[in-house]
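Page 37, continued from 36.
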């Protein structure tokens, strides 16, 4: 059975944790203050990643700078925390990062923490307390605060890297290391000259302890959730006693062994559960989902859905098309097939697993594609969100108004309910691909709702969304424009793509 990208990424995170865990042993050989060490290793890590990545592009985007600043905050605050509080306190507080990601991941990434995730977090933190019990102490307010800031920085960095996974997370990591170097530069200038072994340890710290694992991390973050990206590497502090045992012969305490076993069991159990679930669902291929937005919108309107699907290991192609200037017939018959070819998808390849998820007029684009080319072998399932399959009475009422025609372009006035309008000429749903339809029944604009008819989402009636040949249909309490952005519809999309039916 082939190894999936998610399985490969989980393995890389484990290896990255192994490399990260060498830090404590290497730092002992460097006679510099902590911030000087943080800056020096940041410089060597950045140089290595630039060479290994073969390119570095400073994009000047807000998310890249936020991620880099959070990375630098994490590394510098942790180094300072280890100086001002116990190492155990600093480690435990840094690994509060899963809590912050579980709290904010749904908001920024659309990656909602499950009950299993929260149970794993509780088990991990409990195991860490047991593991570090002999070194934990109170009375170090400033150091403990810096440790907590390091945890927040680690979480925010991971969210930022995950957010830009389709750009280049590695560029952000390189910039973060350079920022850490700038922060540590004053301490480097005042630090004494290093011995030969100290200089070797600093270079090793930058290349082996930071550079190589973050090269792996930049790849892995594309294929795992932000929470997985911090829960799996939490085994890092557990490996420190192994290095100490090998190098100095110092045995870990019984409490450390018990705590380590709890953390390992929690992280391993959760990872195996998630990976086995994905393997059972998609044993042979990584499925591709094509997203098509509605009239007057763009790919940005499907971004939250795209992030959620990618987190579930789908390959997602979030397309933006000229919905106001290109006729819907041309979009479906010519433009969409060309985009599939451009992304390397052969719709007639039986080894390909292709799905489509559409919003509003995007559903008509898919219908036109199938009408023109027939149902392709690769197309397995289609989810239409608020599709005007029988047109909308709103166009019948105000489609001739000049502001409406200006705003909706060439397609808006052709989406009515008449026999010559586009929806009526697209034909029935073909045999083969399974079709699920999500409709809304919340009207936020009473005036538009009065023109459209009831019940409906304010622009399309529930009856108009239905289509002969559909496999399932569900009505949710949301309005038309942002139906595809809400949590419940996104969950229903996942369910239909997985099982061919909605969760009723």
């Amino acid at each position: 059975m082939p190894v999936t990208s998610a399985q490969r990424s989980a393995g890389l995170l484990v290896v990255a944790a192994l490399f990260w865990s060498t830090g404590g042993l290497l730092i002992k050989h460097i006679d510099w203050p902590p911030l000087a060490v943080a800056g020096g290793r940041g410089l060597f890590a950045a140089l290595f990643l630039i060479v290994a990545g073969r390119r570095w592009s400073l994009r000047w985007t807000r998310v890249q700078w936020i991620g880099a600043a959070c990375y630098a905050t994490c590394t510098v605050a942790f180094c300072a925390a280890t100086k001002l509080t116990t190492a155990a306190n600093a480690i435990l507080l840094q690994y509060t990062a899963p809590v912050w990601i579980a709290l904010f991941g749904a908001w920024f990434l659309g990656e909602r923490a499950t009950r299993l995730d929260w149970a794993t977090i509780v088990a991990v933190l409990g195991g860490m307390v047991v593991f570090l019990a002999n070194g934990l102490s109170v009375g170090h307010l400033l150091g403990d605060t810096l440790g907590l800031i390091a945890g927040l920085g680690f979480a925010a960095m991971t969210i930022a890297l995950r957010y830009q996974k389709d750009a280049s997370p590695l560029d952000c990591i390189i910039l973060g290391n350079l920022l850490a170097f700038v922060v540590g530069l004053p301490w480097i200038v005042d630090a004494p000259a290093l011995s030969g072994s100290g200089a070797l340890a600093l270079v090793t710290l930058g290349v082996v302890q930071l550079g190589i694992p973050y090269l792996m991390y930049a790849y892995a973050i594309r294929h795992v959730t932000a929470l997985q990206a911090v829960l799996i590497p939490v085994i890092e502090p557990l490996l420190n006693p192994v290095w100490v045992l090998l190098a100095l012969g110092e045995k870990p305490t019984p409490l450390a062994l018990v705590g380590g076993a709890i953390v390992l069991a929690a992280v391993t159990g959760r990872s195996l559960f998630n990976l086995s679930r994905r393997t059972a669902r998609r044993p042979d291929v990584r499925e591709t989902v094509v997203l098509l937005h509605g009239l007057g919108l763009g790919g940005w309107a499907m971004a939250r859905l795209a992030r959620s699907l990618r987190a579930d290991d789908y390959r997602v192609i979030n397309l933006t098309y000229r919905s106001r200037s290109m006729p819907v017939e041309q979009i479906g018959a010519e433009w969409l097939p060309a985009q599939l070819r451009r992304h390397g998808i052969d719709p007639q390849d039986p080894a390909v697993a292709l799905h489509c998820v559409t919003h509003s007029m995007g559903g008509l684009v898919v219908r036109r594609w199938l009408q023109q080319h027939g149902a392709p072998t690769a197309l397995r399932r289609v989810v239409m969100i608020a599709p005007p399959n029988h047109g909308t009475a709103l166009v019948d009422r105000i489609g001739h108004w000049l502001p409406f025609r200006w705003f909706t372009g060439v397609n808006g006035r052709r989406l009515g309910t008449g026999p010559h309008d586009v929806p009526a000429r697209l034909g029935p749903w073909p045999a083969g691909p399974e079709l699920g339809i999500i409709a809304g029944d919340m009207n936020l604009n009473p005036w538009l709702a009065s023109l459209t008819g009831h019940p409906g989402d304010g622009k399309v009636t529930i009856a108009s969304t239905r289509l002969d040949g559909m496999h399932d249909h569900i009505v949710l309490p949301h309005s038309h424009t942002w139906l595809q952005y809400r949590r419940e519809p996104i969950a229903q999309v996942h369910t239909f793509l997985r099982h061919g039916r909605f969760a009723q």
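The chain has a mean pLDDT of 83. Flag for discussion at group meeting. The two ends are 34 Å apart (CA to CA).
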